[in-house]
Automatic annotation (TrEMBL):
InterPro entries: Leu-rich_rpt, LRR_dom_sf, NACHT_NTPase, NLR, NLRX1_C, P-loop_NTPase. Coiled coil: none annotated. PANTHER family: NACHT, LRR AND CARD DOMAINS-CONTAINING (PTHR24106). This is NLR family member X1. It comes from the Eukaryota. Gene3D superfamilies: P-loop containing nucleotide triphosphate hydrolases, Ribonuclease Inhibitor. Residues 87-220 form the NACHT domain. It comes from Tetraodon nigroviridis. Keywords: ATP-binding, Leucine-rich repeat, Nucleotide-binding, Repeat. The keyword Nucleotide-binding applies. One of its GO terms (molecular function) is ATP binding.
């Protein structure tokens, strides 16, 4: 074994440390991933030189490719070497297929000794780094500059056949300008000769420099022909995840890795099952997930939607999509890719900006016209339809080859690609690989101000020219003002006004963006759709069961305005600036100023719960505390009833409300499927709420500990607490009662149908004495006569309680009469009758039963309603007054209607 001082051992240790470093985008998954646990090998297929750029087989028939699939190790088997020369392997593939990941994993596996062991030395280079080097250097200096520990190693001296044990790796060849023409690139066989890096790489591939060394080059499709065929031993195409099993393995490694807790593991497993079912359907998602990059985006989105908790870092949907683009296109420029002597970097045209101006414009047009699919003719029109110069045509060719298929995919219909089913008359349709990407690019197109009018564009160009020459213009005016007539002097002053004129157009454009954002946010036709987070989840997991009715004519684009807000956040603007898409701070300030006015005005109108949830998501994505506080000041009540709350929605609600310093009048979270963990996350939001409605959820005894602490908190302002239809049980209610002696704010408490029982009612009666409660609802709680009378007696002696709800409890006739004839200062709602008279509170009692009958125990409610009918019939018979008899009959009809509803809904 080699000693620790061996340069190759040092090289392995350092390489392992460098290549084990995960990009910061991976930290959002919790930081528990490693390359070993999360890596899934993409499909790699060896291609003949003649068909290397030919079409792939159908991605839904991966078995056709599996027979010719290879591993990187097989491509470098020693038996493949001929005439003592090393092997040159060209590994190519589209953007997002996993070239860089395979490259990184190959280096790590060699360092660990699990692959390519017959190579003593593996030397990786980034072609992007090499292309940035301006000085000429030798191969040995190039290696020692990056790997100082190999500076004096004899294996690279070029003597004998030592270099047969060396493997050079070059990642991203499309970033370099390689030219194999003898007239352009001189020959070199000396590793100590000083040459430009591109010349060194060319001579390595020619086998003129260190011919025994093997080489692996990764590249995109557009640069495939830069290396002449005679210098390539093997062409290998990386095809991504061409079958659902590879996709499932990837999702399993990502979503199940950290499932330590039982509940978390069960949720992750059920999530995986739904995802796999959607992939097996050969859905549009399955088509997108052929690219591992889109598997990453899907995982990141699902992780955010389902595994956000109180300790999670702030993750927004916009930041996930922006990080996704930075991972795939970070810092790239769009070059001509012609193989000439002009370096690609000299063009300085941001690839991402090119995407925005072409595909972003297409996406914006689709959102505007509520369309998701586009024909080939439309693509031709939008993408490069107006190119003029040869340079633009070359850039367009590179864009089409490398980037277009990353964003657009053939439309999938009923599990088949339309291209296999189209008739001669029909046209092939394309969609954005993931629906959210269309909305993201459309939002980026708008926020960058690319949808300017012709006048605005012209004014900007003139303004820039005048602005650049402003000093010269001022100097010229000062000199000539003494000699020229006043008319010409006025012309010079007019020219100086152009920058101000442009500023007016510019501020008008920012107002247009804000108005667009608000109009898209509050579309009346979209207000009946599910909230945007549920829509995202359905797009990834599919819709199981009956599809919800959509009231809008076309597909909802409710993520589009949310992305517009999220793109204005500083963190996303920093990432976009790295991509060459700069959003100026003054632009954000102007948009925010206009947006604040529009949001405050729109929120003065009542909004459906789903629309209100979307607004909270927008404010969360924006991450602007001042704007959030000012907008929420105009909202006194937040009603999210029937919105399916998730951990992420609770995190968003709590985060947004934490920006407010005032008390919310009402927070209605009834029928939201809340659990204990969600209530724990929402506790800070509850503290500043006066009326808290948590009815019809799934809160058990453990949640009462949180609610007790809430009532004991001196900063809490809760005046009304509604917990109807939660399985709190006696133990939970007793825990809640511990707060009553010290709490001084609660005046309305609803514990209807919470499993209170006699013991809970008696305990409640003892703790009421010094509490300022005014109304108490303990209906439908299996409370008997004695406990009910004790509770009502305690309420009679209480100075402020005026109403007690006791209906739907198993009270005897004698018990009801005792309660009815008690102190009239305390209103007791126990039955629709009071002896031989109708109770004056019959209407609120029946209203509550009618609203909740379908969710309660039908047999129990039916039994109670029959008792009401019996009491009503007996009372009507006792009444001589015809008017009162008719009144009894009216109440009876109401009770029978509820009974009919129960019988109709029963299975």
């Amino acid at each position: 074994s080699c000693s620790l001082g061996d340069p190759i051992e040092i090289h392995k240790r350092k390489l392992f440390l460098w290549f084990s470093h995960l990009p910061r985008e991976e930290k959002q998954f919790g930081g528990y991933f490693s390359h070993e646990t999360m890596h899934v090998d993409p499909l790699i297929v060896e291609r003949k030189a003649s068909d290397r750029a030919g079409p792939l087989f159908s991605p839904f028939r991966a078995q056709n490719l599996s027979s010719s699939s290879v591993t990187i190790e097989q491509l470098f088997e020693p038996t493949d070497r001929t005439a003592g020369r090393g092997v040159n392997v060209l590994l190519y593939g589209a953007v997002g297929t996993g070239k860089s990941t395979v490259f990184r994993k190959l280096v790590l596996d060699w360092c660990a000794g699990t692959t390519l062991n017959h190579f003593k030395l593996l030397i990786p280079f980034s072609c992007e780094d090499l292309s940035q080097m301006s000085k000429a250097t030798s191969l040995r200096d190039l290696v020692s500059k990056k790997y100082l520990h190999l500076r004096k190693h004899p294996i690279l001296c070029g003597e004998g056949d030592q270099t047969k044990d060396v493997l050079f790796l070059f990642n991203g060849m499309e970033k370099m300008n390689l030219d194999f023409r003898i007239g352009a690139t001189e020959l070199c066989s000396d590793p100590n000769e000083t040459l430009p890096p591109s010349v060194i790489v060319v001579n390595l591939l020619r086998k003129y420099l260190l011919p025994e060394a093997s080489i692996l080059v990764t590249t995109r499709l557009s640069a495939l022909d830069r290396v002449p065929e005679k210098y390539v031993s093997h062409y290998a195409q990386i095809c991504g995840f061409m079958d659902p099993d590879r996709q499932r393995a990837y999702f399993t490694s990502r979503l199940l890795q950290d499932s330590v807790g039982t509940t978390r593991k069960q949720e992750a497993e059920s999530l995986m099952e739904l995802l796999y079912l959607n992939l097996q359907r050969k859905s549009q998602l399955a088509a997108a997930c052929l690219l591992p990059s889109y598997c990453w985006l899907t995982c990141a989105t699902l992780h955010c939607l389902h595994f956000t908790d109180a300790t999670s870092p702030v993750r927004t949907l916009t930041s996930i999509y922006t990080s996704f683009l930075r991972l795939n296109f970070g810092g790239e420029v769009l070059g001509s890719g012609t193989g000439t002597n002009v370096p690609i970097q000299e063009h300085h045209s941001s690839l991402m900006l090119y995407v925005v101006r072409t595909l972003g414009k297409l996406a914006f047009d689709g959102v505007t016209k509520k369309r998701t699919s586009f024909s080939e003719k439309e693509l031709e029109q939008w993408v490069g339809g107006k190119t003029k110069t040869d340079e633009e045509l070359r850039q367009l060719a590179m864009f089409r080859t490398d980037v277009l298929d990353f964003f657009l995919a053939p439309c999938v219909n009923h599990g088949q690609r339309l291209s296999t089913e189209l008739s001669q008359q029909e046209e092939k349709q394309y969609v954005f690989a993931i629906h959210g990407m269309q909305e993201y690019l459309a939002a980026l197109y708008v926020v960058l101000g690319e949808n300017k009018s012709v006048l605005e564009k012209l004014t900007k160009q003139v303004s820039l020219v005048i602005g650049q020459a402003s000093e010269d213009v001022n100097a010229l005016v000062n000199i000539l003002s003494k000699f020229i007539p006043l008319r010409l002097f006025a012309v010079f002053n007019l020219l100086k006004l152009f920058p101000n004129l442009y500023e007016k157009f510019s501020s008008r454009n920012k107002g247009t963006i804000a108005r667009t954002l608000v109009s898209e946010m509050f579309r009346s036709e979209d207000s009946y759709n599910e909230d945007v987070l549920d829509q995202i989840e359905q797009s990834l997991l599919g819709v199981h069961g009956p599809r919800p009715k959509q009231y809008s004519e076309g597909p909802p684009f409710e993520l589009y305005p949310i992305f517009m807000g999220g793109l204005l956040h500083y963190g996303n603007r920093v990432l976009l600036q790295q991509l060459g898409c700069e959003i100026q701070s003054i632009t954000v300030s102007q948009i925010t100023s206009v947006l604040r006015k529009y949001l405050v005005r729109e929120l003065s109108k009542p909004q459906p719960p789903e629309e209100l949830m979307d607004l909270l998501v927008l404010l969360y994505e924006f991450q602007n505390p001042r704007l959030t506080a000012e907008v929420l000041t105009s909202i006194r009540s937040i009603c999210l009833t029937n919105v399916r709350m998730t951990a992420l929605k609770c995190f968003i609600l709590s985060s947004v409300l934490s920006f407010c310093s005032y008390s919310l009048q009402e927070l209605n979270l009834s029928s939201c499927l809340l659990t204990h963990d969600m209530v724990q996350m929402l506790q800070p939001a509850f503290r500043h709420t006066r009326s808290l409605n948590l009815q019809f959820n799934n809160l058990g005894p453990e949640s009462c500990i949180i609610l007790r602490d809430l009532l004991l908190d001196p900063n809490s302002s809760v005046r009304s607490l509604q917990l109807c239809d939660n399985p709190l049980q006696e133990s939970g209610v007793l825990t809640l009662m511990e707060a009553l002696p010290e709490n001084k704010t609660l005046i309305h408490l609803s514990l209807m149908h919470t499993g209170l029982g006699d013991k809970g009612a008696l305990e409640l009666a003892q703790r009421l004495q010094h509490h300022p409660l005014q109304e108490l609802n303990v209906a439908y709680n299996n409370i008997g006569d004695n406990a009910a009378l004790a509770l009502v007696d305690a309420c009679r002696e209480h100075p402020s309680i005026h109403t007690v709800h006791l209906y739907l409890n198993p009270l005897s006739d004698a018990g009801k009469q005792s309660l009815a004839h008690s102190n009239r200062q305390v209103k007791v709602l126990a039955s629709v009758t009071e002896g031989s008279d109708i109770s004056e509170n019959w209407h609120p009692i029946l209203s509550v039963i009618r609203e909740n009958a379908s969710s309660w125990d039908r047999s129990r409610v039916t039994q109670q309603l029959k008792v009401f009918l019996r009491d009503l019939e007996w009372g009507r018979q006792q009444q001589p007054n015809l008017w009162k008899k008719l009144h009894f009959r009216r109440v009876e009809i109401g009770v029978r209607k509820i009974l009919q509803i129960l019988e109709k809904d029963s299975p």
